[in-house]
Structure formats: structure tokens, C-alpha cells
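ok trying again, last paste got cut off:
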Amino acid sequence: MKRVRITLRPRGDYAPPIYERLAGGANYLERARIVNWNVSTAPTGFLFRLEGDYRRFERELAESPMVSDFELLPVTDRTCYCFLEGEVSAAARSLFENFTRGSLMTVPPIEYNDDGTNTFTIVGTETDIQAAVDCVPDGVGVTVETVGATRVAADSAVGRLSDRQREAVETALELGFYDVPRTATSADVARELGCATATAAEHLQKAESTVFAFLFDR
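nice, full thing came through this time. structure:
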């Protein structure tokens, strides 16, 4: 059996409006994950874990023609679970089904990233994993992040960070952003990452929020 971590970049019919909002399109959400799902029969069901001003997302769900039912289950005033039932395109459904073929299992959660991508782990035979990667449609970018890593699920503070957030924190540590006194700025981090200063600062802020929430069990 093999263990592979994959990042997808859906486009067009593979990225419905709700997906785009969760994957960086709603700046009031600090983090979004799919923790469970059922796409085998219509209507499709998803269970999300959301962090941020999720009440604003509630209003968007109420207005979405794709959503037939939903419920928010608050954990704190900044964290909730969200059950959603609705329709997904045939293209989006096929993308989920592609990673459950044969021996494959997708290990929750599926992490939404701020750049429009999502990252998850699959477990299965080498043949089935390779077939799934090869069958990702042209409208979807695919990157194999790691093969055979020791971590399957996000079971640590670092494991809960997106790849981009982890890269930002590692860069900040190397540059001295977290030294006392501080010897680097968010602009320095942005320069190394090749992004805007505001974007680098946002990555660091979200990473810090995630780590502290994990440490204090929030």
C-alpha cells in the first residue's frame, strides 16, 4: 500500500461557486475543510469545518441555488461544523469518484487552500494511485506533494497548516521574523515567497491562529 498527498486545482465546471468561496474566495473565512462527504447518490452531502466569520457564509448558502439544505453547528463564535446538502455538477462528482476507485481511500480532511487549490491524502495500491493521478481531467491541475510520508492525517498543529502556510512560517523562521527582537518583516517574507506583503502577512496570521487554536483545543 502507498500513501500519497495530492493538491488539485479545479477550474470551470470542476470548481462550482461554493468551492471558489471556500478556496480563498471568501476572505472572512480563515480556514475551511471537508471532514466527511457522500457523493455516491444525489443529493450530495458534505460536512465542513469552518473557521472565521462563518455567519457571513451562512447568508451565502441561503442564497445559493445549488444548496437544498444546510445547518451550522457552532463550536465557538469563530468555528463551526456545516452540514450541506445540494447538487454538484457531473464534473465535480467525477473528480471525487476518481479518488475512490479500486483500493483507494481518501483520508479526511480535504484542506481548502487560499490559492484556489485543495490538498488531501489518498491511500491505496501504487497501481490505483497512479491510475487516479493519470485520470485527473485536463481542466484540473494536479501536484503530487509527498509519497509515503509518515503522516496520513492532520493530527498535529503543523499538520493542520496548508502547504502555503507552512512554507510561509518556515521562511519567517529562517529569516528571523519570530526572533526577539525581530530581525525580519512580513515584506521580507513576501519577497522570499514571491507574493505580495499583504498575502504573506495573511498566511502567517492564519497559521498562527491555527496553531494556537490547536494548542488550546479550540
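cool. The longest strand covers residues 29-38. The helical segments are 17-25, 54-63, 90-98, 126-134, 163-175, 186-193, 197-215.
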